[in-house]
Amino acid sequence: MTSSDNLSGAAPVPSSTAPSGAAPSGAAQPSDVVIGLDIGGTKTRGVRFEHGEPVADESVGSANVQNVSREDAAAHLAELFAKIGRGTVAQVYAGAGGIDTDEDAAALAALIEPHVPEARITVVHDSRLLLAAGGASTGVAVIAGTGSAAWGANGAGQEARAGGWGYLLGDEGSGYWLGREAVRHSLRRMNQGQEPDELTRALLDSCNTDDPNKLIALFHSPDTGRRFWAQQARLVVEAADAGHRVSRDLIDQAGKDLADMAAQVLRQLGLDGPVILGSGLGMNVVRLQESFRQHLAVAGVHDVRILEQDPVFGVPLLVRDQA
Predict the structure, then answer these.
(1) d(C-alpha 4, C-alpha 11), whole Å
(2) What's the per-residue H, E or C state across the chain?
(3) Which of 111, 267, 276, 292 is the most exposed place for a label (fewest CB within 10 A)?
(4) Cis ω on the peptide bond leading into residue 54 (within 30° of 0)?
(5) Domain extents for the chain?
(6) Where do Low complexity bias regions lie (predicted)?
(7) pLDDT of 172-228, one tens digit each?
(8) Which of 24, 59, 23 is nearest to 40 (CA)?
(9) Residue 218, CA atoms < 13 Å, CB-side half-sphere
(10) Among candidates 86, 240, 104, which has minimal Cα distance to 94?
């Protein structure tokens, strides 16, 4: 059977089930083979687990249809499963951004199913992977990557979330948000007749232009997109580390926005922690981590952890809990 579960707990999606067949001597039994997928805004990472241990680990382009076309998503999944999905697979457990409804989960499961027709497929919001990778079954997971979101669960089985609305409606504190704010900062300086500062100069160099006015057309161009502008977040981080005040303020605001999301979910669930911060920015930008901790401390939250392994490695725990 193939199932696709989202944050609200989706019903199973019917699918044919075929016999698994015998495994070669010494190989993992089919029931012991699980593939975990972490489908982000910029890449899809897949890990093949046998007996709960990773035996293959590959990355391809994004298979998130909020960021790429359905055709590109399907092509990237085909590439990934060709690398790690051969043979009988018992289960695929996929986490992805933008899984907000049963229909979202079912649509992604439908893209995965042709590659593993005998497998059970579970699709959840990617924040579930993050919490499990932090070794927690209750608490709040905060994604700070290309996008942003907070999701949590308590011991009574209640779930809550904040953010995760996508870049047009939110994604505060994310890589995209920082990249966009760098553009806005540069355009404000231009409108005020000020010379480009160090952040603007770095942005212009990265965009291969010498005129801030050209950033407007570039930002709206189909040749750039969410991934491109999220990658410009590194310029804000570098400028902040070099002492640029506005960049430091932007990262502090990002930390505050992420902390506010986490605090909201904690209140809804009646929890005081833990809060686990993960994804690209969350795991790698110390200045953001410090801001995040400080703003949560003001809210009385002190059990704050930085994820030490990628979210996809939470899949074995989720599969065990599911069983």
Answers:
(1) 7
(2) CEECCCCCCCCEECCCCCCCCCCCCCCCCHHHEEEEEEECCCEEEEEEEECCEEEEEEEEECCCCCCCCHHHHHHHHHHHHHHHCCCCCCEEEEEECCCCCHHHHHHHHHHHHHHCCCCEEEEEEHHHHHHHHCCCCCEEEEEECCCEEEEEECCCCCEEEEECCCCCCCCCCCHHHHHHHHHHHHHHHHHCCCCCCHHHHHHHHHCCCCCCCHHHHHHHCCCCCHHHHHHCHHHHHHHHHCCCHHHHHHHHHHHHHHHHHHHHHHHHHCCCCCEEEEHHHHHHCHHHHHHHHHHHHHCCCCCEEECCCCHHHHHHHHHHHHC
(3) 267
(4) no
(5) 2-126+310-322, 141-306
(6) 8-30
(7) 999 999 999 999 999 999 999 999 999 999 999 999 999 999 999 999 998 898 889
(8) 59
(9) 19
(10) 104
Q: Mutual orientation of helices 102-112 and 70-84 as an angle, nearest 10°? A: 50
Note the maximum CA span of the chain: 74
- Residue among 108, 103, 111, 95 at smallest CA distance from 47: 95
pLDDT in tens, 17-42: 233 333 343 455 556 899 999 998 77
Give 2-126+310-322's CATH code, choosing from 3.40.630.30, 3.30.420.40, 1.10.3430.10, 3.40.50.150: 3.30.420.40
Q: Which fold has domain 141-306?
A: Nucleotidyltransferase; domain 5 (3.30.420)
CA–CA separation, 181 and 103 (whole Å): 33
Per-residue model confidence (pLDDT) at position 9: 33
d(CA 39, CA 77): 10
Residue 148 token pair: 């942003």
The Cβ of residue 82 has, within 10 Å, a number of other Cβ atoms equal to 12
Query: Both tokens of residue 49?
Result: 């687990």
Look over the chain and give the mean of its residue pLDDT values, rounded to a whole number: 87
Determine the straight-line distance between the first and last CA of the chain, rounded to whole angstroms: 14
Q: Pull the structure tokens for residue 306.
A: 């930085």
- CA–CA gap between residue 298 and residue 292 (Å, rounded): 10
